[in-house]
Design goal:
About 40% of the residues lie in helices and about 15% in strands. It has about 220 residues and is of the alpha/beta class. Strands 2-1-4-3-5-6-7 form a seven-stranded mixed β-sheet. About 30% of the residues are buried. Pfam families: HET (PF06985).
């Protein structure tokens, strides 16, 4: 797992149980930065650098040394690394110390079921780093929009209390850039691991359902 050092801005790689505490910025914005810019040391040239810098500042102030940003911490030119990252995504959110989301950066079609369900807490900010609220504090409004159970958002009940059909219903209208990612992004939610096969389109969701039923 690659993480950005909030003090130096450099990328560092961790494996196994050696992964330190980290925060997550789940959505930087389309076309804003990639791992090649970071590996080349061109931090300041990345679109959205100011957002990353401010995220690092806030994370440091909370005594967390590392932050994960999907656009800059995954080498999407490597199919093997992309597959590993997608299969690990739920676990990464689940283990994050904090998770931030900028409402001004989210597109109208953004779906955040994974972040809402997996992260222990999710904080919402405006573009000036003013906190709007948290997923637990805004649970009633979020539940009304996403249909995710309010008690789950508040952390009152565990995900294991819900059946597969209910969990599937939460993601029924999920929209993704690539059709296959609609299924791949849910692997961690159902605790299954399966190889990615871009080009299979709608078949990916059927494979997900088969793997889910096989593991239950």
């Amino acid at each position: 797992m690659r993480l950005i050092d909030t003090t130096t801005g450099e990328l560092k790689y961790f494996i196994g149980s050696n992964i330190p505490h980290y925060a997550i910025l789940p959505y930087l914005g389309r076309g804003r930065g990639n791992i090649q810019d970071y590996l080349g040391g061109q931090h300041e040239n990345v679109q959205g650098f100011e957002k990353i810098a401010q995220t690092c500042r806030v994370t440091r102030e909370r005594s967390i040394q590392y932050v994960w940003v999907d656009t800059c911490c995954i080498d999407k030119t490597s199919s093997a690394e992309l597959s590993e990252a997608i299969n690990s995504m739920y676990r990464w959110y689940e283990r994050a110390a904090e998770c931030y989301a900028f409402l001004s950066e989210l597109p109208a079609d953004a779906d955040m079921e994974l972040e809402l369900i997996a992260s222990p807490e999710l904080e919402f900010y405006d573009g000036s780093w003013n906190m709007i609220g948290t997923k637990s504090g805004l649970s009633r409004q979020i539940s009304a929009t996403t249909l995710i159970d309010e008690d789950l958002l508040k952390g009152i009940v565990d995900l294991s209390e819900y059946c597969v059909a209910t969990e599937m219903s939460w993601a029924a209208n999920r929209q993704t850039t690539r059709i296959e990612d609609r299924a791949y992004s849910l692997l961690g939610l159902f605790d299954v691991n399966m190889p990615l096969s871009y080009g299979e389109e709608g078949k990916s969701f059927w494979r997900l359902q088969e793997e889910t039923m096989r593991s239950t």
